[in-house]
């Protein structure tokens, strides 16, 4: 029998939607292997000597060209006569187990076969030292036993704090290689202080561990590879900071507010997100796009009355972190929500509200109808609604009819298809996305 709450929304009108395309200024690297080879001509790479065992970090994010980049670093290290291996460096992700972290890498296309070297996964850590406040600084045991460590990560804005070093090499060193125990320690004084301890822990590890250098990537607004850089361990945090600013400027955005502003701003009735997942953002949905931040200290410029998340990416391995930032989700997302993965992440970071489940509706249609009915618009037949595939790829989006006049005036935005009815098959939204190469 159909639940009564479904009957309350099933007659809510759905707007006609038009496919739009945004154009962003972007630099694109088409040969990741060559880019790694060029970056590793840096003087700091000469620290790799024949016979050395070298630990190379691999995180839990779906970086652009991740398998190719890691394999290229492995090949460059081996070409110098050293013996590389890869260490999962992802804090508590993958359910905070060695097997789960290896499985998460495999979901991202990173395996021993793709790398051409061994993956050594363990949650065991060594204590490197203690901060002045008593925090233990932990280091992955396999990495700590190696003759040298190469940090590899994407440099980008964090989803929950602002600092000179956010997501990047410093965070990979402090939290990623800290595994669950180190990540928990870094988050133990609340999310607003994480940036401080990322830097303090990273500096101690740079001083006391065998970190040789880092390979950082910067991505463009299309989730493509824009730059690959090698940063020496000496002065690494200071050298990384300008690349974070580049990454901020490169971020895509929703087409709302002044175009010369760094982020979208204004009001939106409904945002529909087709998929959330770890490969799109550490928080499943990037708050830098939605402005649904964890911390109250983050500046909010965009106000979305209702946010709908329809599904969870299979590559996220059940980690439904990010669902809590939606107002409405579907039963299929709830079914894929793995408490083991989500709760380990939430307990470690101490952000327990990220493990909550929002209102659950049976299907895509009823979830979207619920958001429209409750969004507070004066006239829900003229709802201002956007639909995006995820918060990482914003080149294409669907916009409701009421939004088209303002969007047609926007530079760099093209309405590429005529308005069409929202199409559903057995409750699933079927209006397609273009093939993006």
Q: Provide the residue-averaged pLDDT.
A: 91
CA radius of gyration: 22 Å
Q: What is the CATH homologous superfamily assignment of the largest domain?
A: LarA, N-terminal domain
The second-level CATH architecture of the largest domain is 3-Layer(aba) Sandwich
User: Number of DSSP helices?
Assistant: 15
Q: Low-confidence parts, pLDDT < 50 over ≥5 residues?
A: none
Structural class: alpha/beta
Overall structural domain count: 2
What is the CATH class of the largest domain? Alpha Beta
Q: How are the strands ordered across the major sheet?
A: 13-12-11-10-14-15-1-16
Q: Write the CATH fold name of the largest domain.
A: Rossmann fold
How far is the N terminus from the C terminus?
44 Å
Shape category: globular
Domain LarA-like N-terminal: 50-160
Organism: Sulfitobacter delicatus
GO molecular function, one term: lactate racemase activity
Protein name: LarA-like N-terminal domain-containing protein
Structural key phrases:
437 residues, alpha/beta, Rossmann fold, 2 domains, 8-stranded mixed β-sheet, 6-stranded mixed β-sheet, 18 strands, LarA-like N-terminal domain-containing protein, LarA-like_N, lactate racemase activity
